């Protein structure tokens, strides 16, 4: 699994959120039994994420992390790596909390 | 009647060379181009010492280049063997060794996998590696000796074919219960009658837009490709990533203005579960076909209510009998969510028989073993006479004759309506997301890992969209600490991801029945009782 190129926008917001990355990584290892080498690992290229895993991941994100994400609003780019998932969740959370987009 | 599968391409390339043949996202290729490129590739393969009957493996995701390659391979009088890029190197080695291929054609993005395949050691037969398109494959253990673009100056004129319709067109490797994938040999003559029938029955015409959803190592793609080429229609390759998001897939069907959809039911069920289909959606769609496993009736009702303009057809048939052997078109939307949808009646040239142990028909309403006979029947498993004779048997007919029939391993009954109904399996084969999986192959891979005292794999149906879930019960060897994370990771080096267990339970010892065998029904109950996430 090769790392995805980091982009500036992701770096900036994720720098403050390693705990979220860790918690998402824990969902992968403890709930989905999937080892993801690093937060930047490309989940799509290696076929780690299939439809079943994606649906289960969304379930655990809601149950364990408290973020409700409808499959309809998911763009695969948001789920390409643990880092991007964290970024996506933070932007969604900002939207719900403040009633305005934070990104 | 057509003699060889690629004859349809040649005919339609002469009839309408400028018509679109294959579409992949923003790229497209015409019938004329497809004909010329595949002719050149066939000549290139012959130059690379590929002779009549030689196996040529294709390691590539679905792409226009991959379609060109399949046609080039069979035009070179060779046998096409698809390798699934999602499978691990160890499984590919088994297939490459088994089929003793003369050549591997590989897409550029499979270079790391190809290198891993070769890193495990050399093969004891000579073969070459070629890359598709302009890609150069140069790894520490494997480098491509040629690329398909090297043949751009070769003649694009039609070739002389030495193959006959009884020669193999492809070998599809499916899950084998002993841990070694088995190769189902499919001849040109196996495929042609179904395609000819399907083209007429599904009103496939020039200009039609058909889906190509199944991966190339799955035999549904045989009908996608050759059905489309026979009709002079357009083949729209569904990007693999669209499968993850039901709304994106619905969008793809809308944007591509597909007229025909063919897939395993699990993806249709997935779209239904997440309500991705609108009322009167997909206005161009005329035919919707599924095959490979049971389409749950509630999801079928969901689809039929939303798409009253579409005809819905259930196809049934294992790889050994080529694409499908029976069909059932729903006359109306089922009224009852609990009603079972029949697998129907045999396609022309095929026969379906529900028989007892003495190969005599069972009375209507009773359950028996389902056998198939007819034109689609494979000559057998690649270089495995024992397995072939086990399931391809002869049944005496009235008079002196006998008919060769295939024991599917499926249980079925004939209803009062004369239609055949699928009941279940008589062995440990399961279907998960349309993939045909032998639980024995997973157990065999688990047994090869260190640190396990006992293990068993069972399939559990929890009512999710994906069909059966693969569950693994295990007992660590004393003194060893292992867990799902480690086991899954090690298993992923041996098995494709769709075969990996998703649910795991650790035991002190596995439950046994009165005969001392692992109590599998008890394990199924244990997994059901264990808290399962709602999908």
Can you give a write-up of this model?
- The complex is a heterodimer of chains A (103) and B (535).
- Chain A has 103 residues and is mostly helical.
- Chain A has helices spanning 8-14, 18-31, 51-65, 82-98.
- In chain A, 51% of the residues lie in helices and 0% in strands.
- Chain A starts with 7 loop residues before the first helix and ends in a 5-residue tail after the last helix.
- Chain B has three domains: 7-186 and 206-232, 3-Layer(aba) Sandwich (Rossmann fold); 238-427, ANL, N-terminal domain (Rossmann fold, 3-Layer(aba) Sandwich); 431-529, GMP Synthetase, Chain A, domain 3.
- In chain B, the strands form seven sheets. Chain B has a five-stranded parallel sheet, with helices on both faces. Chain B has a five-stranded mixed sheet with strand order 12-13-14-15-16, covered by helices on one side.
- The N and C termini of chain B lie far apart (48 Å).
- Helices cover 28% and strands 26% of the residues of chain B.
- Chain B has 535 residues and is α/β, with parallel strands linked by helices.
- The model of chain B has no long low-confidence stretch (mean pLDDT 93).
- At the A-B interface, helix 2 and helix 3 of A face helix 8 and helix 13 of B.
What is the fold's blueprint, element by element?
The complex is a heterodimer of chains A (103) and B (535).
Chain A: H1 8-14, H2 18-31, H3 51-65, H4 82-98
Chain B: H1 7-15, E1 20-24, E2 27-30, H2 31-47, E3 55-59, H3 64-75, E4 79-83, H4 89-99, E5 103-106, H5 111-119, E6 128-131, E7 146-147, E8 168-174, E9 182-187, H6 188-201, E10 209-212, H7 220-231, E11 234-237, H8 246-256, E12 260-263, H9 265-273, E13 287-290, H10 297-306, E14 311-316, E15 326-329, E16 345-346, E17 350-355, E18 367-374, E19 380-381, H11 385-391, E20 392-396, E21 402-414, E22 420-425, E23 429-432, E24 435-438, H12 439-447, E25 452-461, E26 468-476, H13 484-491, E27 503-506, H14 520-529
Parallel strand pairs in B: 1-11, 3-4, 3-5, 5-6, 6-7, 10-11, 12-13, 13-14, 26-27
Antiparallel strand pairs in B: 1-2, 8-9, 9-19, 14-15, 15-16, 17-18, 18-21, 20-21, 21-22, 23-24, 25-26
């Amino acid at each position: 699994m090769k790392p995805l190129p980091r982009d500036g926008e992701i770096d900036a917001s994720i720098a403050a959120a390693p705990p979220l990355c860790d918690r998402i990584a824990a969902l992968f290892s403890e709930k989905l039994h999937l080892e993801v080498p690093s937060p930047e690992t490309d989940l799509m290229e290696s076929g780690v994420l299939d439809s079943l895993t994606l649906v289960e991941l969304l379930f655990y994100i809601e149950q364990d992390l408290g973020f409700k994400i409808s499959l309809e609003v998911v763009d695969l780019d948001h789920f390409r790596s643990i880092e991007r998932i964290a970024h996506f969740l933070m932007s969604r959370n900002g939207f719900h909390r403040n009633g305005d987009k934070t990104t | 009647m057509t003699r060889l599968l690629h004859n349809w391409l040649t005919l339609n390339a002469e009839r309408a060379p400028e018509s679109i043949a294959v579409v992949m996202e923003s790229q497209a290729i015409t019938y004329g181009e497809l004909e010329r490129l595949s002719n050149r590739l066939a000549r290139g393969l012959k130059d690379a010492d590929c002779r009549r009957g030689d196996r040529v493996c294709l390691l590539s995701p679905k792409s226009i280049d991959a379609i060109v390659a399949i046609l080039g391979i069979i035009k070179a009088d060779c046998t096409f063997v698809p390798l699934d890029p999602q499978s691990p190197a160890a499984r590919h080695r088994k297939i490459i060794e088994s089929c003793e291929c003369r050549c591997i054609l590989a897409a550029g993005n499979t270079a790391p996998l190809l290198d891993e395949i070769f890193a495990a050691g050399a093969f004891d037969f000579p073969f070459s590696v070629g890359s598709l398109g302009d890609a150069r494959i140069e790894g520490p253990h494997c480098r491509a000796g040629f690329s398909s673009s090297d043949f751009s100056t070769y003649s694009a004129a039609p070739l002389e074919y030495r193959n006959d319709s009884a020669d193999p067109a492809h070998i599809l490797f499916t899950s084998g219960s002993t841990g070694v994938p088995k190769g189902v040999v499919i001849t040109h003559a196996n495929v042609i009658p179904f395609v000819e029938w399907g083209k007429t029955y599904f009103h496939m015409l020039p200009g039609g837009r058909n889906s190509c959803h199944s991966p190339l190592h799955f035999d549904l793609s045989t009908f996608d490709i050759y059905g489309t080429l026979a009709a002079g229609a357009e083949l729209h390759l569904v990007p693999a990533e669209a499968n993850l998001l039901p709304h994106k897939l619905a969008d793809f069907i809308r944007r591509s203005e597909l007229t025909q959809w063919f897939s395993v039911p699990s993806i249709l069920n997935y779209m239904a579960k997440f309500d991705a289909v609108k009322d009167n959606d997909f206005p161009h769609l005329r035919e919707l076909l599924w095959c490979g496993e049971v389409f749950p009736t509630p999801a079928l009702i969901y689809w039929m209510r939303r798409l009253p303009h579409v005809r819905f057809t259930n196809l049934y048939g294992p790889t050994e009998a080529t694409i499908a052997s029976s069909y059932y078109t729903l006359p109306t939307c089922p009224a009852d969510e609990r009603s079972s949808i029949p697998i129907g009646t045999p396609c022309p040239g095929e026969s379906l028989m529900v028989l007892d142990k003495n190969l005599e028909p069972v009375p209507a309403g009773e359950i028996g073993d389902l056998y198939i006979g007819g034109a689609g029947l494979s000559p057998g498993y690649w270089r495995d006479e024992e397995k072939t004779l086990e399931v391809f048997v002869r049944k005496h007919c009235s008079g002196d004759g006998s008919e060769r029939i295939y024991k599917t391993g499926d249980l079925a009954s004939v209803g009062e309506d004369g239609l055949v109904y699928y009941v279940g399996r008589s062995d440990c084969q399961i279907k998960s997301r349309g993939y045909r999986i032998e639980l024995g192959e997973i157990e065999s891979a688990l047994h090869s890992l260190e640190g396990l005292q006992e293990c068993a794999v069972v399939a559990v149906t929890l009512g999710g969209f994906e069909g059966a879930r693969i569950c693994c019960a295990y007992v660590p060897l004393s003194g060893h600490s292992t867990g799902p994370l480690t086991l899954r990771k090690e298993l992923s080096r041996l098995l494709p991801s769709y075969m990996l267990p998703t649910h795991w339970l650790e035991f002190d010892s596995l439950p046994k029945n009165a005969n001392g065998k692992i109590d599998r029904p008890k394990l199924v109950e244990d997994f059901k009782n264990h808290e399962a996430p709602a999908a």
